[in-house]
Design a protein that fits this description.
The protein is α+β, with helices and mostly antiparallel strands. Helices cover about 55% and strands about 10% of the residues.
């Protein structure tokens, strides 16, 4: 009971996450300190005859629970780091990954909900003291949590059902204050993926989270997506009603969360939903000029008519389309159809290897061939086991791992985050379908590479399916300036 009372006092008033810098810093700093303490205690336990395996598992379980409790309470960039650690869980053997999987399941809703008085004050700050005039109904209860705020269900003054996203009071200050602390958590890499370049990954996540503090930009992103997908037969993006400061009001989407589809959906439905998510991601950056960087299951709904609904557009970045298509086309073509020398040239030209650095390009070629399996087959089925093996191969901490010799161009980081997160969702869904045909539909460069691959391997090309998919081209293409 004492621990619970202490936790309650440390939280912000009104049910908000703690925003005082000293409190947040102390909570984050407690993570590596507690981890070191558990390791020291483990030495004593082994001395008393407890097996190393039992001690290590106990340390893993306690550390996982502590990390996700703290990250869940702090929210903001801490929650985003927790989402990233969900990918690290894939790098662990199944018997060791269970503690992290269990703790992660509690992360999304672990922050305290804002009390009604706090919500009302936040709404008044942004929409004015007469803010209730805008709504026929407003539910004070939280309908869903977000990393830096929460969502309420309401009825707009014209009768439309809407979602009202409200940022936690003080979230700007709290999140920006967290960034430096999160950069110092590299010691926790030994828990999730020994040897990983955690500072670089954390920097990318923190940069993304800082951008997500701008609700005006988020609303503009959503308006662009909603206009582009307005007449799409498969995808629905809710329209933005209004945005004022740290409040965004948009249309409410009635649907089944993809998390529920993952848990209990029939195989055919899981595959259909997975392919729709892939279609949305691949088509949206071509059609909008923006990359959707946060495709985790909580941001998707399956509407009653079967269409895929998409929410939360805070994590979007302008995308250099021309340079990216050239990069992907050359890398995939050299990996599928070229020699090891061709791949070496492509990797160096596009900045994946530092100039004049020696590396095991043959091992990289072998690894790329394995990861490219979805693009080498006309139909592919994702599984968590398949993805786990690929992630563990890349994140192997041994110095002999050739992937440790590689780097990644800074502008590719958002795409890598989106792609890996999307593959995680497809693996959870165990989605199966014409993956490479969907890639080829939105990239002529990839379509040409796939056709050369089929011709070389004397297998029938599936580009007829690609032409069929392209029969209904998108209405128009947007040019977005950051």
């Amino acid at each position: 009971m004492t621990e619970r009372r202490t936790s309650s006092r440390s939280r912000g008033t009104g049910g908000t996450p703690p925003v005082r810098t000293a409190v947040r810093n102390a909570k984050i700093a407690s993570l590596p300190i507690a981890y070191a303490g558990r390791q020291a205690a483990g030495v004593a336990k082994r001395a008393r005859g407890k097996s190393a395996a039992e001690v290590n598992q106990d340390i893993q379980m306690r550390t996982a629970q502590h990390i996700f409790e703290v990250l869940g309470e702090l929210k903001g960039c801490a929650t985003k780091l927790g989402q990233l650690l969900a990918l690290y869980e894939l790098a662990l053997p199944p018997e060791l990954a269970e503690p992290y999987r269990t703790a992660l399941a509690q992360l999304q809703d672990s922050a305290p909900a804002m009390l009604p008085a706090t919500v009302h004050a936040a709404m008044a700050d942004e929409l004015g003291e007469s803010w209730r005039w805008n709504f026929l109904e407003f539910d004070d209860r939280r309908a869903a949590g977000a990393s830096i705020g929460q969502v309420h269900r309401a009825v707009w003054r014209d009768g439309r059902q809407v979602a009202v996203k409200v940022m936690y009071p003080g979230a700007h200050q709290a999140v920006l204050g967290d960034l430096e602390q999160l950069r110092r958590l590299s010691i926790l890499a030994t828990v999730f993926a020994p040897g990983a370049d955690v500072p670089a990954v954390t920097e990318a996540i923190c940069t993304s989270v800082a951008g997500e503090l701008d609700y005006a930009a988020e609303a503009e992103h959503q308006r662009i997506f909603a206009e582009v997908f307005a007449d799409d037969p498969d995808i629905v993006v809710p329209k933005v009603i209004t945005q004022r400061g740290n409040v965004v009001v948009s249309e409410w989407l009635h649907g089944t969360p993809v998390t529920r589809i993952i848990e209990s959906g029939a195989p055919q439905e899981r595959s259909r939903v997975g392919m729709l998510i892939l279609r949305f991601l691949l088509s949206s950056w071509v059609r909008t000029g923006l990359l959707y960087c946060d495709p985790h299951p909580g941001n998707f709904r399956v509407l009653p008519d079967g269409r895929l609904g998409v929410v939360d557009f805070g994590a979007c970045v302008s995308w250099p389309q021309d340079g990216f298509t050239e990069l992907v086309g050359e890398l995939v073509d050299s990996a599928l159809n070229g020699t090891i020398a061709d791949l070496d040239v492509a990797l160096r030209r596009h900045g994946f290897v530092e100039p004049n650095r020696a590396y095991d390009v043959a091992a990289i070629a072998e690894g790329i061939a394995v990861v490219s399996e979805p693009l080498a087959e006309s139909s592919f089925r994702f599984t968590t086991e398949w993805l786990r093996h690929r992630v563990r191969h890349v994140m192997d901490p041994r110095l002999s791992n050739a992937h440790r010799q590689m780097t990644i161009p800074a502008y590719v980081t958002p795409f890598a985050r989106a792609l890996l997160t999307a593959m995680g969702v497809l693996a959870q869904l165990e989605a199966e379908g014409p993956v490479r045909a969907e890639f080829a539909r939105w990239s002529p460069e990839l379509a040409a590479a796939f056709e050369r691959f089929d011709n070389h391997h004397a297998q029938p090309t599936d580009l007829g399916l690609v032409r069929q998919l392209r029969a209904n081209p998108p209405a128009r293409r947007f040019s977005v300036v950051s």
